[in-house]
Structure formats: structure tokens, C-alpha cells
Amino acid sequence: MDLHVLFGDFTVRSVALGAALVGTVAGALGSFAVLRRQSLLGDTLSHAALPGIALGFLVSGSRSLTPILAGALISGALAALLVLLLTRTTRIKDDAALGVSLSLFFAVGTVLLTYAQRQVGAAQAGLDAFLFGQAAAVLPADLTLIGGVGLAALLALALLWKEFKAVTFDADFARSLGLPVLALEALLTLLIAVAVVIGLQLVGVILMVALVVAPAAAARQWTRRLEGMVALAAAFGALAGVTGALVSASARGLATGPVIVLAASALVLASLLAAPERGLAWHAARSWARRRALGSHRVLVDLLRLGQDHRDPAYASEQGMLDTYFGGPTGHVLRRLRRRGLVERVEHMPEEGAHWVLTPAGRAQARELQAPFGGRRDEDENR
Amino acid sequence: MTVVGGVHEPALALHVEDLTASYAHQAVLWDVDLNVPPGVLAAIVGPNGAGKSTLLRCIIGAVRPNAGHVYVHGRPYREQRRRVAYVPQRTSVDWDFPTTALDVVTMGLYGRLGWFRRPRRTEADEALEALAMVGMDAFASRQIAELSGGQQQRVFLARALVQDADLYLMDEPFAGVDATTERAIVDLLKDLRARGKTVVAVHHDLQTVATYFDWLALLNVRVIAQGPVAEVYTAENLRAAYGPRVVLLGATEGAAPVAASVATAGATDRGTEEARTPVA
Predict the structure, then answer these.
(1) Are A201 and A125 in contact (CB under 8 A)?
(2) Residues 27-56, chain A: which have Cβ within 8 Å of B?
(3) In 3D, which of B77, B47, B43, B45 has the Cα closest to residue B63?
């Protein structure tokens, strides 16, 4: 199916819109999860949503999304409380507590899901879509709910922007300003849980954490301000969401979640490589430039030293001697320096091969380089 | 008698009474009474684990004490929050947070701004002014991760200055800063004192206590001694705070004569020029 036809389809268009919104909310709130080092909490919240999804369906007896998402939110919250309880009352550390809580809730969820799927109407409810996500299972009524809740979460984030920023950067200081830190932290965690829950139908409980963490991690590479990070993460999340929804809709039966996660991971990879200042490629380019500069600097200083040793600033050094002094071939470095007008090649004794001499500009630069290490001024050319 | 909610010890900038705090049933602070008059530079000094940081965090409400109350300029802390500025330990936050120096300083105005309101031009100007006071205005738009330790500490101080408080609570303001920054911070503290402000700082360097501060509280879970530096900085008190194994020699330069005489009359006959830091 080509893209034009695909976009013409009303269902596909509305699902793409829903995916964009889910990605926006997950990216924006995910930035806070990442900055607060709560990425794994996002994973626990999404896996722990599974028993709530099954119970929501069993209790309401229908496929209506509202009770299912409410159940997901409640069981996610219970899992988060269990983590708190474990870390506060036992010696179990954060990561272990998150792991215990995640696996316990997911196991209960799997059992409940198996039971729920035997019930009448379970097949139509598309409950198994909640594991890996299925854009095709999303109905227009679901999109209204997802959209409404998502926009409410974004509105809360916008209203409490500076409070959330203060609490995330420096909680003690925020407390000293009189902010209710505990309540704000709880609300922020709740909003992150909301971001997770509204994405479950599209992305699935297993991979939802990727849509929370990946756009934020990618965005962090590019910006220096929280505003920029959140905006960019929201855009990345929307891009990944739409890509996943469209690809999944065009390939019959392909789960949406994995495609969304692949798209988000591609954004992370590109950002890790290419982003200025923090990207790997940027660092590699800079360290290559530095290594190159270091080579040039050393050859310049070597030439200066050889001149000083021979008490002749215009001393022509043989290239072989420079190679030995430098500890490797210097030909390419010398040619580069000549292009910059810092050295000249002289035919001193043609039978001995190339000789090199510093130009006045080269001598000045070499002295500058040598100065911090105690340049030997007493042996300058005046002598 | 204590009148809860009313005026209590109005002559003191900071009045802490009966403060007791614990982590996992282990008392970190026990029955701490701390009284700091206005217009002094007060140091809280004590060994590791003495509860110095916890004391400050109890005062600002970041740690809930088991017992005790805190009054600032005669009123409960809760009512006086605007008159108190807190400078946490520099290492307590993640400096890789995506923000600029100016933005961090602007956070000092969040309390005044109140809910939902965004900082505007006026707030940015005030923050820039505070950055200028610590000599950091040229770094306003710099990413905080790019700042040196000393520069980060100055940004934190600027954030406290912009609050225009009467009482400044600082946790180790000199930790990990170079000599130049230390000098600059001392000048800043003296300037605050000259303007009638009160500073209470957790400090770890006994060598400089007597030169930088004029009021001293020795803490080791309990308050060992408190008062003017000249009266409190004695060998006896320091041993009581740091334990009997403390090597205490002649008072460092500028120390109180009491401390000097006690030290010379005490464990050693070695020359007073051999100033040493006490080691626990």
C-alpha cells in the first residue's frame, strides 16, 4: 500500500494521530523520568499494568478502554508502592525492588490474561494486543480517551513546569522554597504512569518503556536546556509513534510496538553518533583533529630543538633524523606544515634526502608551544 | 515557655530547640539546641557523621525530625521561609542537568513567584545581578556541566543571594573550591554580615574556622558547645567533639587566646608554630 492511499484511509489517519499524541506525551514526560533516573520505574509501571488490564476487562465485562486503562493505572501504582515499601522497610535496593515488583505483577498479569481470554468476547476485546501493541485494535472511541487523557497530562506538565523543574534538579532546595516536594514527586510519577498507560494499546506492556526512555535519551544529546530537551523528546516520540503506526498498518498483522521501538532506537543511535558536543562522531572528529594538531606541534618543537642544539636557528634538519626524534614517519606532517607556511624544504645535501627548516612564522609558533615547558631561551639564535 | 505559632526568642536569628532526628532508628541528632544571634557568621563544625548536614536539612524541612522546633527571627520557620536561603552541598545535585547558570539562579525566585507563574524579564535581570555579585555574570548562559567546581559553588551562592534572605544556611560552601574562590566566598559572607544578614554554614576545616567565622557550634550528634568563636574554640571542646585521639596543637593563627593557652598547657610542649589540623 503506498503512503498516499494509506493516509487517505480515515482509520489509519486517526490511528497515526493517536500514535503521535502517545509519542508526544511519552517523550515529554519520559524526559523527566530519565533526568530523575526513573527509567526502570517506567518499565515496572508498564509491565505491572498487565494484571490491571485483565482485571479491568473482567470486572467491566466489556472491551471499553476506560476500565481497562483505569485498571492498568491502579495496578501500576500498586507496583510502584510495592517498590517503595520494599526499599523503605527492607535492605533491598532500588533496582532489585523494581525487578521483584515488575516480575511479580507481570506473572500475575499473565495468569489473569490467560483466564480472561477464555471469557466470552475476549477475542473481540483484543486483549492480546496489549502485549506487543496493535494499532489496528485501536477504535475511534479509544482514541478520544487516549487523546483526552494525554492532553490533560501535557497541560498539567505545562502548568507545573517550573515546580517540576525545581524538584527534579534540586529537591532539597525546592523544599526550602516551601514547595510540597513529596506531592510534586508523586504527581510527576503519576503523570509518567499516565504516559505509559495511554500507550499500552499501541506499544504494548513489554516495550512501552522504550517510548518513554528512548526519545528522551536521544533528545538529551542535542540540547542544553530542559525546554529544548522536552520539546525535542516529544517530537522524537511523535515521529517514532507515527512511523510505527503507519508501518504496522501497511503490513498485515505486524505488531505496532516493535516497529515504534525500532524507530525510536534508530533516533537514539543517530543522536548518540551525530549530536554536537555529546555525540560519538563529534568526539571522534575532535580527538582526531587534536591528535593531528599534536603531531604538528611536536614536529615544530622538534625542529626548533634541533636548531637550538646546533646553535643555528636556520639549521636544516634531515627528515630521517626528524623521524627518529619523532618516533615515526613525519613526511605527511611536514607537508601539512609546509602548506601552512610553517616549514620549508631545503636541498641541503641532495644525496642525503630531504631537509627541512622552520620559517620565521614556524619558529615563532614553535617557541610559543615550547614556552610553557621552559623553552631554552639562552640558546637562541643570538648566540 | 514556648508559645507555638507565636513569637518566641525574637532576639535570635535562628533558634533550634530539642531537635532530634534519626535514620533507621539510629539517632543522628539528639536533643539539639542551637541559638544564633543575628548579624554573625556562624560555623557548624564536627566530625563526619556528626549530623551537620542533617541539622540544616531538618531546619529547612527536607528531613522530618522526630522532635523539636525551629524558629527564625522569633517566628516558626514555616512562616519565615522567605527570609531563609538554603545552599545545599554542591555534590547533592546532578550537574549534567540540561540548564544554564542563569536558569539555576532564577530558581531562587520561584518561591516569590508562586504557583503557575513563569519567570520573566525582571526575574532574569535580578538573577543576572546576583551572578554579577559572585563574579559569574559572564557565565550566565553557560551550560552548568561546563562550569568548574568553584564556579558551580558560586552559582549556588548566587541562587541564595537572589532570594534576598535574612538568614543563609550553607552546607559546606568551601568544599572542593580553589583558594581564589574560597577567598571570594569569604568576602561575600563578610559582605552579607556587614549588611546585617546572618550566615550559618557547615564547615569542615578547623584551621580556618577562627579566621572566617565569629560564631561557632561544635556538633557531634549533640551540641558540644556553642557561642562566640573565641570562647568555644578550645582544646577541651574540640576533644569533646572529635574524641580523645584528636591531635590538637597550638591554636592556628587568629585563634582565641583561650584555645592557645589550653593547648600549650595540655598534651604538648612543641612550638606553637607547628600548627596542625586535628585528626580524628
Answers:
(1) no
(2) 35
(3) B77
- C-alpha B55/C-alpha B202 separation (Å) is 9
Contact B58, B19 (CB under 8 A): yes
Rg (CA), chain A: 31
Flag if A224 and B110 touch (Cβ within 8 Å): no
Is B110 in Cβ contact with A177 (below 8 Å)?
yes
Cβ(A86)–Cβ(A72) under 8 Å? no
A159 at interface of B, judged by CB pairs closer than 8 A:
yes
Using the 8-state DSSP alphabet, how is residue A60 labeled?
Answer: H
**Partner A contacted by B22 (CB < 8 A):** no
Distance CA B241, CA B237 (A): 6
Chain A residues with CB-CB distance to B86 below 8 A: 172-173, 176
What is the CATH architecture assignment of A282-373?
Orthogonal Bundle (1.10)
A212 three-state secondary structure = helix
pLDDT score recorded for residue B233: 87
ipTM of the complex: 0.83
Of the partner residues A173, A181, A223, the one whose CB lies closest to the CB of residue B86? A173
**Which chain B residue shows the shortest CA-CA distance from A155?**
B116
List, for chain B, all residue ranges whose pLDDT scores fall below the cut of 50: 1, 250-280
- The DSSP secondary structure of A252-293, one letter per residue, reads TT--HHHHHHHHHHHHHHHHHHH-TTTSHHHHHHHHHHHHHH
pLDDT in tens, A127-171: 888 888 887 778 888 888 999 999 999 999 999 999 999 999 999
pLDDT at A359: 87
- How would residue A356 be classed by pLDDT, with cut points 50, 70 and 90? confident
Chain A residues near residue B99 by CB distance under 8 angstroms: 165, 169, 224-226
Alpha helices in B36-178 (DSSP H): 52-59, 101-106, 110-113, 121-133, 149-161
Domain range annotation of chain A:
3-276, 282-373
Q: Is A232 on the interface with B (CB under 8 A)?
A: no
Mean pLDDT, residues A5-9? 63
* Selection from A231, A297, A243, A249 nearest residue A28 by Cα: A231
Q: Which CATH class is domain A3-276?
A: mainly alpha
Q: How far is A267 from chain B (nearest CA, A)?
A: 19
Q: pLDDT band at residue A262, thresholds of 50, 70 and 90? A: very high
Torsion of CA B265, B271, B273, B276, to 10 degrees: -70
